[in-house]
Design goal:
By secondary structure, this protein is α+β, with helices and mostly antiparallel strands. 40% of the residues lie in helices and 21% in strands. The protein folds into 5 domains: 101 residues, Beta-Lactamase (2-Layer Sandwich); 147 residues, 2-Layer Sandwich (Beta-Lactamase), CATH 3.30.450.40; 94 residues, Beta-Lactamase; 76 residues, Helix Hairpins (Orthogonal Bundle); 157 residues, Heat Shock Protein 90 (2-Layer Sandwich). A hairpin with a 3-residue loop joins strand 18 and strand 19. Helix 10 runs antiparallel to helix 11 and helix 11 crosses helix 14. The longest helix is centred in the N-terminal third of the chain and has 45 residues.
Length: 646
């Protein structure tokens, strides 16, 4: 190739002009590595005519380490134009030219090396930030096409055990992505490189045996060169990196060196991305398992940051727990709204962390109650995560919901309390009365007091009835909870029920200087329900209201008819019920805290439980609010027609 020209007719010759080095005077000089001076080119049989008018020529080869790397050609339109002095001068000039060309090539090589290093460094930095396999593959393909002016780059992933190739990505010079040129053939370049684990370079694909049957596979070989490079993790082939070129000359040693280095980076990045995907997959599987258990779990890394929170914890806290991932676990613990259970102290977060920092293998235990969004008793255990003699790599916190167990314990305690107090009194009264009656009956008939005998038997009967009522209440509640009660449905008026309850309890109210007021419409439509159960509900509510009413107080029974249902409201003028207890009062045996009743003995704690179950059996609702006078107002909503009657 003509690299530079000067003088006369040659000033128009471009640097792209090529000359055949196998013919002419220049060819002889390069082949013999010696100067050739021709006084008359017309007399030289090897002269190849170039520009018209040339009569003499001086050709001096440029030699570097004994190799011809170029030549300096002088041509003249005069015969015998060049002398020995000219030859000596040009010989010296060629020596300087050889050194200059060598320096220029070294400089260009250094520049290319720097550019190559910068390109590989930038690719490496990009790959370090990536854990997505697809993004890694596309970055590698982009680096190959952009830096080496390739026609296209294809990357395949290889399963060495199964001997299968999976298309990863491709990038074409026009920017097209993920178009596969053709499926890998059993004896094609990709499969051959994967099996051999060695780089393969094909300079003329159309003439290569690898593409001998390409028409059968509906594909075309690239017009220029093609290289396939194995991607390895150690000795294991994990993929194949194919790069195609428009011209065979583009596959230089520098290009191959760059692609080898890029493939080495790609192997590490792909292995890391595959590992990251496997870790993500395992983590997702673990998350799925943890999300489907009833235990709350969150995991902490060795650096004390939260790495995983399962669905149970998220639902308990009722907040976006993702914001705690990657944050110190103390922030998660501090965010939990907790309080002691039954006023029992528990370890605070700062003390817990201090103990763990003091001893990484320490197993911690705490019991507390989560208060938001609902009350939940929790037993918390934290266990260090370690394998054998390896150092602690993290910590797992296990949160067990003990709310039901706590309620069972409370139920057992309340049942024991009921057995001791509520059953003991009537039973003792019954036994004492029977003993007194027996003594009286065994006495002499002449001195027997029939009045005493009658009174003691009345007390015994009253105590027995009280025991029976308590047992029947428990049995009735159990049946209601189990759905085993068949409602005796019939139409009736709630006005009639309100009147009967008022009449039944009015003598008790009057004896305590209390009154019962009715607020019932004259024309109240009938509802379809179990009249006996509903009357018992209203009786229980009014009886409770009388117990908590102050002297001179008034209890109101109000009925409101609506389009689809009717509402019964029983309100009093007592001290009311605290908001935090308004749901719990319907639980079995629950007694209002500090409930000093102005009148009447302590109840069994079953009345409101019965009311709730009986109302819900009709498809209704019951709740308590603050009354207009500051007391309690119990609301009962009953549908006009019960679900069982439809």
């Amino acid at each position: 190739t003509v690299a530079a020209t000067a003088g006369g007719q040659l000033t128009d010759v471009s640097g792209d002009t090529s000359w055949d080095v196998n013919r002419g005077v220049t060819a002889r000089a390069l082949a013999n590595k010696t100067t050739v001076m021709v006084a008359d080119v017309m007399a030289d049989p090897e002269y190849v005519r170039g520009w018209p008018g040339v009569r003499s020529e001086l050709v001096v080869p440029i030699l570097l380490d004994g190799q011809a790397i170029g030549s300096i050609n002088l041509e003249s339109c005069q015969t015998g134009a060049f002398t020995e002095d000219h030859q000596h001068f040009i010989n010296n000039l060629s020596e300087h030219a050889a050194i200059a060309i060598q320096n220029a090539r070294l400089f260009e090589q250094l520049q290319r090396g720097r550019e190559e290093f910068r390109a590989l460094r930038n690719v490496a930095l990009d790959l370090l930030r990536m854990t997505d396999l697809k993004a890694v593959l596309q970055t590698i393909a982009g680096a190959a096409v952009a830096k080496t002016d390739a026609m296209d780059a294809h990357i395949y992933l290889y399963d060495e055990e199964a001997e299968t190739l999976t298309f990863g990505t491709s990038l074409w010079a026009n920017g097209e992505v993920d178009r596969e040129a053709a499926k890998p053939r059993p004896d094609g370049l990709t499969a051959s490189v994967a099996r051999a684990g060695e780089r393969m370079v094909i300079y003329r694909p159309a003439e290569s045996g690898v593409f001998r049957d390409y028409k059968q596979w509906n594909t075309e070989p690239p017009p220029g060169g093609l290289v396939g490079i194995p991607l390895k993790r150690g000795s294991e082939v994990i993929g194949v990196f194919n790069v195609a070129y428009f011209n065979p000359g583009e596959l230089t040693e520098e290009t191959l060196r760059y692609l080898d280095l890029l493939a080495a980076q790609a192997s590490v990045a792909i292995a890391n991305a595959q590992l990251a995907e496997e870790i993500r997959s395992r983590r997702d599987q673990l998350q799925a398992v943890l999300d489907n258990i009833n235990t709350g779990i969150f995991m902490v890394d060795a650096d004390g940051t939260v790495s995983l929170i399962n669905h149970r914890v998220r639902s308990w806290l009722h907040t976006d727990t993702e914001r705690f991932i990657g944050r110190p676990y103390a922030e998660l613990l501090d965010a939990m709204p907790v309080e002691p259970i039954n006023s029992e102290p528990f370890m605070q977060v700062d003390d817990l962390i201090a103990d763990i920092q003091l001893n990484q293998s320490y197993i911690t235990r705490r019991s507390y109650a989560l208060t938001v969004p609902e009350y939940r008793a929790i037993d918390e255990v934290s266990i260090p995560v370690a394998s054998g003699e390896e150092p602690v790599s993290g910590r797992i916190f296990v949160l067990q919901d003990t709310t039901e167990r706590l309620r069972v314990d409370q139920y057992r305690d309340e049942m024991s309390h009921m057995l001791v107090h509520d059953l003991r009194g009537p039973t003792a009264g019954l036994i004492a009365s029977l003993h007194l009656a027996i003594d009286e009956m065994q006495s002499d008939a002449s001195v027997r007091d029939e009045q005493i005998l009658h009174s003691t038997l009345q007390v015994a009967l009253m105590s027995a009835n009280k025991l029976l009522d308590l047992v029947e209440s428990i049995l009735k509640i159990n049946k209601l909870e189990a759905g085993e009660v068949t409602l005796e449905l019939k139409p009736f008026s709630l006005a009639t029920v309100a009147l009967r309850v008022s009449a039944t309890l009015s003598h008790i109210a009057e004896a305590e200087s209390l009154s019962i007021a009715l607020d019932v419409p004259d024309a109240l439509p009938a509802i379809v329900a179990d009249e006996e159960l509903i009357e018992r509900v209203v009786t229980n509510l009014v009886d409770n209201a009388l117990r908590f009413s102050p002297d001179g107080g008034e209890v109101t029974i109000k009925v409101v008819a609506r389009s689809d249902d009717q509402v019964i409201v029983v309100s009093d003028q007592g001290r009311g019920i605290e908001p935090e207890e308004r749901d719990r009062i319907f639980e079995r045996f629950y007694q209002i805290s500090g409930s000093d009743r102005p009148r009447g003995g302590k109840g069994s704690g079953l009345g409101l439980t019965f009311c709730k179950l009986a109302v819900e059996a009709h498809g209704g609702r019951i709740w308590v609010e603050e009354s207009a006078n500051g007391g309690a107002a119990f609301h009962v909503v009953l549908p006009n027609s019960s679900a069982q009657s439809q």
